[in-house]
Amino acid sequence: MTRGIDISAYQTGVNYNMLKASGVDFAILRAGYGKVVSQKDRMFETHYKGCKDASLNVGAYWYSYAYDENAAVAEAKACIEILKGKKFEYPIYYDVEENGQYKLGKQKVSAIIKAFCTEMEKAGYWVGVYTNSSWYNNVISEDIKTRYAIWIAHWDVSKPSIAGPYGLWHYKVAPQAGINGDCDLDYGYVDYPTEIKKAGKNGYSVEPTPTPTPAKKTLQVSLTVNGVQYEGTLTEK
């Protein structure tokens, strides 16, 4: 299990080295919200650089206001533009929690999530869904729960009240060393850095498999020259 936080423009003056020293392993950063690039989180670049400089693993999330698939695709395209040129060791999460979206029902909510995630995957990202236990249990289809990385929010309980698997758990809002004020606290249960790098996602490239050098052929020889016998091994050049 690893320890993490998620932060956005609401957290300023962050001491990233103190976060690392306090045992935080990763940070999930809000990249932005909505469907245009101008809605980029104003602290995203600062948080990204600070975390990377402190050797913290990083993921990102995009807050959704989409009410149909076209809007979800537009949100994905804006997210992709903002993430461009950066590397992330944790998934890129689609944050769906607007009350109006919930009222759309399972079929529509699931279609919106799939539209965003499909667009992100086409761009080479390891994607996931951030949601709470009520959304998970009532308006998210089963194929989404098993297809994408799940980051579940359920505060102040011994464990989330969901039956399916989850990779991150947002378990509490509380003070954290290195943060001014309260912060979202998370546990991680999947070795995403290893898996993402191995898969060549989120800005990483798959390391090429080295071509083995073929073994050189050898030949045992024995010959006689001027009455003298010679024996030895000849090796292919």
Estimated share of beta-strand residues? 25-35%
* Overall form: elongated
The residue fraction in helices comes out at: 25-40%
Q: Any low-confidence stretches, pLDDT <50, length ≥5?
A: none
Oligomer: single chain
Strand order of the largest sheet: 1-2-3-4-5-6-7-8
Structure class: alpha/beta
Calculate the mean pLDDT score and round it: 93
Query: How widely separated are the two ends?
Result: 52 Å
Q: DSSP helix count?
A: 8
- Tell me how many strands there are: 10
| Main pleated sheet | 8 strands, mixed, barrel
Order of helices and strands: EHEHEHEHHEHHEEEHEE
Could you describe the 3D structure shown?
With 237 residues, the chain is an alpha/beta fold. 30% of the residues lie in helices and 28% in strands. It has eight helices and ten strands. The chain has helices at residues 16-21, 44-53, 69-83, 99-102, 106-122, 133-138, 142-147, 192-199, and strands spanning 2-7, 26-33, 57-63, 92-95, 127-132, 149-153, 168-175, 182-188, 218-225, 228-235. An eight-stranded mixed β-barrel has the order 1-2-3-4-5-6-7-8. Strands 9-10 form a two-stranded antiparallel ribbon. A hairpin with a 6-residue loop joins strand 7 and strand 8. Helix 3 (69-83) runs parallel beside helix 5 (106-122). It is elongated, with a radius of gyration of 25 Å. The N and C termini lie far apart (52 Å). The model has no long low-confidence stretch (mean pLDDT 93).
